[in-house]
Amino acid sequence: xxxxxxxxxxxxxxxxxxxxxxxxxxxxxxxxxxxxxxxxxxxxxxxxxxxxxxxxxxxxxxxxxxxxxxxxxxxxxxxxxxxxxxxxxxxxxxxxxxxxxxxxxxxxxxxxxxxxxxxxxxxxxxxxxxxxxxxxxxxxxxxxxxxxxxxxxxxxxxxxxxxxxxxxxxxxxxxxxxxxxxxxxxxxxxxxxxxxxxxxxxxxxxxxxxxxxxxxxxxxxxxxxxxxxxxxxxxxxxxxxxxxxxxxxxxxxxxxxxxxxxxxxxxxxxxxxxxxxxxxxxxxxxxxxxxxxxxxxxxxxxxxxxxxxxxxxxxxxxxxxx
Length: 322
Ligand code: AVI
Prior knowledge:
Helix content is 36%, strand content 25%. By secondary structure, it is an alpha/beta fold. The strands form three sheets. Strands 2, 3, 4, 5, 6, 7, 13 and 14 form an eight-stranded mixed β-sheet that branches. A four-stranded mixed β-sheet has the order 1-12-9-8.
């Protein structure tokens, strides 16, 4: 695989983000993108297999059932960029459907080197698909991909798995607007969105009884310990998943079980955390089925089709640049 390395070293940015998030007034935070180091990426793969986490299976089912129809509605893309490919497992059917029409370049864009390597292993040998991985942020990767195409060649962007739900709603509008600004008429975007469902089911999906999601969340503190020399005592923090009704999102937090002090030398920080205080680590917004089409309009696309899973409310939305 041809991997384009990130231009900046990740650690100084990590230290700055940890420092900024943990000193935030009112509610301490850690950015969710840092959940995905090597351990976190593996734990996320395990989450996708949990019976309580129906999202990935719904995403995959829709792609398997409707890949041919999806591809027939896209204006024959020669290039496919996937924002956050993960292991690439669910992308196989759509790539095969595309490859039946024409030779296609596939560019998984990932900040996780481990996920990118797994994706190359999974999809690197498909007939009529040439894979070039980018170890970059989504927008930097997309810019690099967009610059590779010849005039008249169309690009399809895949943004699957409801990763858009991990952005706050205004940030999602802004991000999709920035994606749009890299695209040209005839380009398309396939966007996966997890839909609102029974709150009890939603909470179980983010607080499974085996504790895989708890481990995924706690690994973020372990990462701060490993990479910034911090002394977070993991047993003194508890994974919390909450449903925020007003914002229509699941929030993941890490709650301190006692008043404690934590040193983070790599971020030049000494933290005093109160008993019961939380560090907010992730939001996962849920959507009404009509919302994706409105989101498309606001960010400069037009939604031309939507497929909704019949077992787990989840939608694939196909958008076009006109
Ligand atoms: C990657 N993302 C869409 C997942 C989600 O459902 O928000 C991350 C996740 N967090 C806990 N479980 C899964």
